[in-house]
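Revision sheet: structure tokens.
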Amino acid sequence: MNYYGAKELAAAFRTVRNNTIQIAEDIPEDKYGFRATPENRSIGEMLIHIAHIPDFPYEALGVQKRTSMTGFDFMAFIEPRIADEKSGKRKAEIVKQLKDGRDHFANWLETLPESFLGEVVTMPPGGEPPSRSRFDMIMSVKEHEMHHRGQLMLLERMVGVVPHLTRRMEETRARMQQAAAKP
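Predicted:
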């Protein structure tokens, strides 16, 4: 019995993406060019990178329905996405891209039968692990986005924005302390 299927994947992805969208909305547009070091992506570039994270599993698993990644030209696939990161999009365009991607990917996830999620995909020679379930490949979208969202939360602090989840936690803590102080 599987307690975490397509509906749960979609709901979890929406939650993660909604938090990313909140960060994108909270950061002022004039800070989208900020980068922690010259080698790092800017805030805007990272948000565009995040917007593209679902593209690979959707293309490979949803469109091409691959059972093997051998022969998939990953570099050709990501080159236009890297170019998009450098495109200089405005904040509103990036937020829209994040929202549209959330809806497209989550709606696709909801349609996936458990049998599809359990199928194994062989990685190219030398791939580690040598095979992965479709479920694992799809779950990595959320993990990848959360990795970058952690970076964004640090960048928020660096540009003077208190992350929304921190604000929420501080508000909850203050209410609890206030309630505990009442006789």
